[in-house]
Design goal:
Layout: H1 3-20, H2 28-35, H3 39-45, H4 49-74, H5 77-101, H6 104-131, H7 141-148, H8 159-174
Helix pairs in contact: 1-2, 1-4, 4-5, 4-6, 5-6, 5-8, 6-7
Length: about 180
C-alpha cells in the first residue's frame, strides 16, 4: 500500500474510532468528513460500513494482543494484568459502538474471527502470573472474558466512577490469596 493510501486508511480508522463512541448511527459520510478525505477514498478502503467496523474492531483486538505481550515483558504480572484491563476498558467503549453499528449476523462474524486472539492475550497475562505464583491457576481466559462482560453494561454516565472499582475487584479475585497487590 502506498504511503498516502496507508495514511488515509489510518486516518479513516481513527475517525471511525472517535465517531463510533458517539450516540447515533455511524455514517460513512460523517467518517469521511471527519477524516478529511473524500467519500471515494473511504469507499476504496472500506466498501461498506460493516467492512469499516470489522477493520476497526480487528485492529482494536490486535492492539490488545500486542499490548498483552509488551506489558508482560515490561511489568510484574499483576501490574501487567491491571494495565491490560485498563486498555480492555477503553476497547469496550469501541466494542459497544461496534455492536450498535452492525446487525447481529455481522457482529457474530466479526467476533468469531477475534475470539482466539483475545484468548491468546489473556492466556499470556494469566500464564505469566501463574508462573510467578501471583495469579490463580484455576482461572482461565474464558473466566476472564465472562467476568469482563460487565464492561458492556456500564452506562456512560457511571463509567468513570464504576469501571476502575470493578476492574480492581476483578484483579483482586484473580490474585492468589498470598500475592502482593502488585
Amino acid at each position: 500500500m502506498r504511503r498516502d493510501a496507508s495514511r488515509n486508511r489510518s486516518t479513516i480508522l481513527d475517525s471511525a474510532r472517535e465517531l463510533i463512541a458517539e450516540p447515533g448511527e455511524l455514517k460513512l459520510s460523517a467518517v469521511a468528513k471527519h477524516a478529511g478525505v473524500g467519500q471515494g477514498t473511504l469507499y476504496r478502503h472500506f466498501a461498506t460500513r460493516e467492512k469499516l467496523v470489522a477493520a476497526l474492531y480487528t485492529g482494536e483486538i490486535d492492539e490488545l494482543v500486542t499490548s498483552a505481550h509488551e506489558l508482560v515483558d515490561q511489568h510484574p504480572p499483576t501490574e501487567a494484568l491491571t494495565l491490560w484491563f485498563d486498555r480492555l476498558a477503553a476497547y469496550a467503549q469501541v466494542k459497544r459502538g461496534v455492536m450498535d453499528a452492525v446487525d447481529s449476523t455481522a457482529w457474530a462474524e466479526i467476533s468469531a474471527h477475534t475470539h482466539r486472539k483475545l484468548t491468546e492475550a489473556i492466556d499470556t497475562l494469566l500464564g505469566a502470573g501463574s508462573r510467578d505464583g501471583v495469579l490463580r491457576e484455576d482461572v482461565d481466559a474464558r473466566d476472564v472474558i465472562l467476568l469482563s462482560w460487565f464492561l458492556a453494561h456500564v452506562k456512560p454516565e457511571e463509567w468513570d466512577e464504576r469501571v476502575p472499582r470493578l476492574l480492581d475487584v476483578l484483579v483482586s479475585g484473580i490474585r492468589t490469596p498470598r500475592s502482593p497487590t502488585q
